[in-house]
User: What shape does this take?
Amino acid sequence: MISLILAQKKMLKLITFDLDDTLWDVRPTLINAEKKTREFIETKLGKLEWGSWEEFKEIRKNLIKTDASYEYDVGKLRKKLLLMKIEEKLGATEEAKKLAENAFEIFYIERNKVNFFKGVIEALSELASEFKLASLTNGNACIKTIGLDNIFEFNVSSVDVKSNKPNSGHFEKALQLTGFTKNEMLHIGDHQVNDMLAAHNFGVKHLWFNPDNLDWEVDCMPLPTAFSEWPSLVKEISKLQFT
Ligand SMILES: [Mg+2]
Assistant: This one.
């Protein structure tokens, strides 16, 4: 199959992938990471009130006003939120700082424990034998910890380009790192705006991972070619036109 693709797709050189919700379902991972982190803090400080999603969004908005990097650096944002919560009990002390650092370490370990969708590793391994593969993420997953560093040649995170998809920074960086051109690149991701509209606006081919068969909601671009399960990905790529 892969050599067939290669014969048909001489122009395709680089395939980039979103990570969260494209290679794995991120929700259970984040819920578990959050739970373990809170449990750790509460063993030190006792029961805490963690606040609602609305309150979190308000705090985030205010933090971004004071420092724009909180918008694209999710690790820094997470550390700051943990510190703020701990300081409610311990005040602005060295002890609070240390506890926040330790809590973030726990969060980050758990955040990188992911369950791949069925067929991900098989498809990536097959594609990696013929194309350069890389990941473009707004999140802070670590491809080395997750064991993808032998498949992806590099990862571009928002913190690397000081910007989130759907802005073009991740895509520009990928081309800059490889020396390839837009028509030699394909981007694959789950998010209608951050992946599909982003790739469309940047001018690169794109494939939509749509496991839940969602309706297409972005009016300003055509419905992209979609696939709902990883075992069919190589076949879907072989159908794309590269000229
Ligand atoms: Mg995603």
